[in-house]
Amino acid sequence: MAAVGMNRRKQRLRDVSSTTAGRKRRKLPAAEEKSWQKAGSKLNEEISSDSEPDSPAKKKNNEAEEEIEETPQEKKLRLAKLYLEQLRQQEEEKAEEEALQRDLVAGRLKEDVLEQKGKLQRQIAKSLQLPNQADIQVLRGHRLPITCLVISPDDKYIFSAAKDCSIIKWDVESGKKLHVIHGGKKVTEGSHGHTAHILSMAVSSDGKYLATGDKNKLIMIWEAATCQHLYKFTGHRDAVSGLSFRKGTHQLYSASHDRSVKVWNVAENAYVETLFGHQDVITGLDSLSRECCVTSGGRDGTVRVWKIPDESQLVFYGHQGSIDCIQLINEEHMVSGADDGSIALWGLSKKKPLSTVKRAHGFQGAQGLEQPYWITSVAALLNSDIVATGSHNASVKLWKCGAGFRRLEPLFDIPLVGFVNSLKFSNTGNFLVAGIGQEHRLGRWWRIKEAKNSICIIPLKTAAGNTEIPVEGS
């Protein structure tokens, strides 16, 4: 039996070997043999490319394989890490935004503090450029000399008044008249216009109210948007020569030739109080955000700072002639002009001018009888080093205030023929507006026939890189 089993196993081995030999000896058809050769060569190429960098397609395949091979636990861990990373990035961005906001707020608060202390001075004069005469926009509408003007807080509108007793609202961009409030003989019962020369104007810092004062002792209050008449304030005993709204409020200050300053609450249509002190007619008035105002005292030769809550005043001496105009540069400094031809810079901490320029606009008259040109108007760009002055010598002068307001340096002259009875800088400082007349706003001492009763909008261009630099005041 054992021999028989052995023989069978041997027989099987012979059959397998013969089958293998037969397979080896079998020839393939020519087409199949070529396809096998191509497949072999392609396989060889793939094998030889293993040492080379992975192609993008192969990388995608590898990534897909990795994703397929990723377990649910690993996927949860990966997504959790991704979510945490996104949260971290969001927190970093939020922290950066908050830090930036804090810096902005801190900067603004610091700027407000400097402004309140009168130590904020934007350095603009060094980059200011002389405007082209062709770029000056001339607006004609008043028949008689312009006496006063104001610019709306958004710099879109100009309100002007004249000796013809009319008020005109202008659009700055187009130069068109938007509204005319007729005065004088044209006043009807329903129009509420002025019947005497308008000498002063003011607009509230929110642009809601317009106030006008005339030679007939009256103050009119208008809605600035529609020019609709609201109230009439009576109480002064002579011409109302100065008006100013306290910045950020509806408190109105008025100055008069009756030598008094009155305080009004326009929102409540109410009189508040009267302040006395000047020994001659008051010719100009200005105020900012503090509860005080400054006045020029005409022939009494004084500038006064009125502290309304204390009912007290500070008295400043400096000019030799009648002080006809005044304006605050910031909360601590102001500029004034007089008929002796001088302009003066003042600081509230000193009773004498910090700087005085005599005969600022030159002389007029025959040799030996020369008289300085009167300073008829002054303007200052708020919290900056720019001042403008007007006279009737056929030009508006721009000046640079030196560091600490210790000196005034001339920048350039802008030719304008006539009495420059009013000057105002736009709130952005992009333009200067001049009210031109053939006569002085307060009288008829001279008449310049070639002058045009008009509003002139003078564009102010500066070189790039203006900065606000705090400068220690006096």
Key structural traits:
474 residues; single chain; alpha+beta; disordered C terminus; four-stranded antiparallel sheet; 34 strands
Q: What would you note in describing this structure?
A:
The chain is 22% helix and 37% strand. It has helices at residues 2-25, 30-48, 56-69, 72-117, and strands spanning 120-123, 128-129, 137-139, 146-151, 157-162, 167-171, 177-181, 198-203, 209-214, 219-223, 228-233, 240-245, 251-256, 260-265, 270-276, 284-287, 292-296, 302-307, 312-317, 323-328, 333-338, 343-347, 355-357, 363-364, 371-372, 377-380, 386-390, 395-401, 408-415, 419-425, 431-437, 454-459, 461-462, 467-470. The strands form 10 sheets. A 4-stranded antiparallel sheet has the order 3-32-31-30, with no helix packed on it. The protein has a 4-stranded antiparallel sheet with strand order 4-5-6-7, with no helix packed on it. The longest helix is centred in the first third of the chain and has 46 residues, at 72-117. The model is unreliable at 16-28, 45-52 and 465-474 (pLDDT under 50).
Radius of gyration: 43 Å
Share in helix: 10-25%
Structural class: alpha+beta
Helices, by number, come to 4
Number of strands: 34
* Terminal-residue CA separation: 134 Å
Task: Tell me, rounded to a whole number, the average pLDDT.
Answer: 83
Uncertain runs are 16-28, 45-52, 465-474
Q: Major sheet: size, sense and barrel closure?
A: 4 strands, antiparallel
Arrangement of strands in the largest sheet = 3-32-31-30
Beta-strand share of residues: 35-45%
Outline, from the CA principal axes?
globular
Determine the oligomeric state from the structure. single chain
